[in-house]
């Protein structure tokens, strides 16, 4: 599952309009216009290498969107003493995008562990509290578990069921 697909599914699940998507990107520090949002949301299998109908969403764009989603849903947090105004990029080259997706959507929507387990259950997948905790851990922690596409896809499917009915 690529970053464009993640954005498409997240947009559908949370019923976010194109104008709101551009605003969320802007809140996260990426200057993306509404026409560019439309190109980002073009499915990759429709993409023709000769045309420029699609903009490939890289990790830093996705990170900016997720940071913007947190600000959009929860409001801007005032930086603590000695902390910089702009958040450091959460994605490094080796970081797993799916783990970050789970963490940041959990924060943005103020989901509890039980909420997340229910979302996975709605999608037809059983995840234990221990497994979920491992998926939400920081990379490098001894109990960290990499989130596969199956978990991310089912999480987004469960979100759609929860928020769209």
Tell me the layout of helices and strands.
Elements: H1 3-14, H2 18-27, H3 34-40, H4 59-74, H5 97-108, H6 113-122, H7 129-136, H8 149-164
Helix pairs in contact: 1-8, 2-3, 2-4, 4-5, 5-8, 6-8
Written overview of the protein:
Pfam families: DUF1456 (PF07308). This is DUF1456 family protein. It is a single chain. The chain starts with a helix and ends with a helix. With 165 residues, it is mainly alpha-helical. The radius of gyration is 16 Å and the shape is globular. The protein has helices spanning 3-14, 18-27, 34-40, 59-74, 97-108, 113-122, 129-136, 149-164. It has 8 helices and no strands.
Question: Could you provide a short overview of the structure?
Answer:
This protein has 165 residues and is mainly alpha-helical. It has helices at 3-14, 18-27, 34-40, 59-74, 97-108, 113-122, 129-136, 149-164.
Key words describing this protein structure:
8 helices, DUF1456 family protein, 165 residues, single chain
């Amino acid at each position: 599952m690529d970053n464009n697909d993640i954005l498409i599914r997240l947009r559908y699940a949370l019923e976010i309009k194109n104008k709101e998507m551009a605003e969320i990107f802007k809140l996260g520090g990426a200057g993306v216009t509404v026409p560019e949002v439309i190109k980002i949301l073009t499915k990759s299998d429709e993409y023709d290498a000769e045309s420029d109908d699609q903009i490939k969403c890289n990790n830093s764009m996705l990170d900016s969107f997720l940071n913007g989603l947190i600000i959009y849903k929860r409001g801007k947090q005032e930086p603590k003493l000695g902390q910089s105004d702009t958040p450091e990029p959460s994605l490094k080259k080796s970081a797993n995008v799916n783990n970050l997706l789970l963490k940041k959507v959990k924060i943005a929507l103020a989901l509890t562990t039980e909420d997340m387990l229910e979302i996975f259950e709605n999608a037809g997948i059983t995840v234990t509290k221990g497994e979920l905790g491992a998926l939400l851990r920081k990379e490098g922690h001894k109990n960290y578990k990499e989130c596969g596409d199956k978990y991310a896809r089912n999480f987004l499917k469960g979100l759609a069921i929860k928020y769209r009915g």
